[in-house]
């Protein structure tokens, strides 16, 4: 013996459960995509911050050659937060006749001056 009302209510509950499961799946996917986007943003922000600190703490040095002598004067001009250096190594090479245009160097390419 079946009860039409019980069958109707059971079918309605099953359909409602299926709709709720579909909506939960959709919400879960959207949340997962948002989480991935937030992780990408956090990674790029960390890289930007790392580069900023690297630039901020890179020693700034001014070199001046005294004409007529064999003296190279070196002065640390910054940054303020960098109180001391553990070591400074200066290498002078005789590169007469060597063209440096188009070459990449650690400190950047030679200036045009």
Question: In words, what does this structure look like?
Answer:
The chain has 113 residues and is an alpha+beta fold. It is 47% helix and 13% strand. Strands 1-2 form a two-stranded antiparallel ribbon. It is rod-shaped.
Could you provide a short overview of the structure?
The chain is 47% helix and 13% strand. The chain has 113 residues and is an alpha+beta fold. It has a two-stranded antiparallel sheet.
Key words describing this protein structure:
113 residues, alpha+beta, two-stranded antiparallel ribbon, rod-shaped
Distance between the termini: 101 Å
Mean pLDDT: 78
- Output the number of helix runs: 1
What shape does the CA trace take? Answer: rod-shaped
Instruction: Give the class from helix and strand content and strand pairing.
Output: alpha+beta
Q: What portion of residues is helical? A: 40-55%
Compressed to H and E, one letter per element, the order equals HEE
